[in-house]
Write a structure and sequence with these properties.
Strand 1 and strand 2 form a beta hairpin. The protein starts with a helix and ends with a helix. It contains six helices and three strands, in the order H-E-E-H-H-H-H-E-H. It is mainly alpha-helical. Strands 2-1-3 form a three-stranded antiparallel β-sheet.
Length: 144
């Protein structure tokens, strides 16, 4: 039951992590730092490169959420356990590093000199990705 609740909590926490500040970036220390989240990063990409924004949205938003929804369905008996290998494949698409690379590209295009500070959302987002992997592994072990 704890595994089911943990997986369900991911469905609530993912959108919070997407809106949470991942980092603060600024041009000079004298000016305020702009907070960058997954959602603002994708919006920024949308303005400069729509295809890249769609790819990042697929990998950073859609894939992890779809994997978690399918995992919940398997855990609650709403989907067959034979779906688990496909979820492993979907998990490979849910790569946060793809989002981070695209975000760094956006930062490099917009900021030549400046500073970047990590924010609490980066830790939340990372923890959720790791928790999702742990829930998936635990479900697979339980099914075996």
């Amino acid at each position: 039951m704890l595994l089911r609740l943990a997986t369900l909590s991911l469905l609530v926490l993912y959108p919070i992590a997407w809106a949470a500040p991942l980092m603060r970036a600024g041009v000079l220390p004298l000016f305020g730092l702009a907070e960058i989240s997954v959602l603002t990063g994708i919006a920024s990409l949308w303005d400069s490169d729509r295809l890249l924004a769609l790819v990042v949205a697929l990998f950073a938003l859609v894939a992890p959420y779809a994997k978690t929804l399918a995992l919940v369905a398997v855990q609650w008996g709403l989907a067959p356990r034979r779906l688990l290998p496909a979820l492993h494949g979907l998990g490979r698409l849910a790569m946060a590093d793809v989002f981070l690379i695209a975000l760094y590209i956006t930062l490099a295009k917009g900021i030549g000199i400046g500073r970047v500070e990590t924010a609490w959302g980066l830790y939340l987002f990372t923890a959720l990705i790791l928790a999702g992997m742990a829930c998936s592994a635990a479900t697979a072990r339980k099914a075996a």
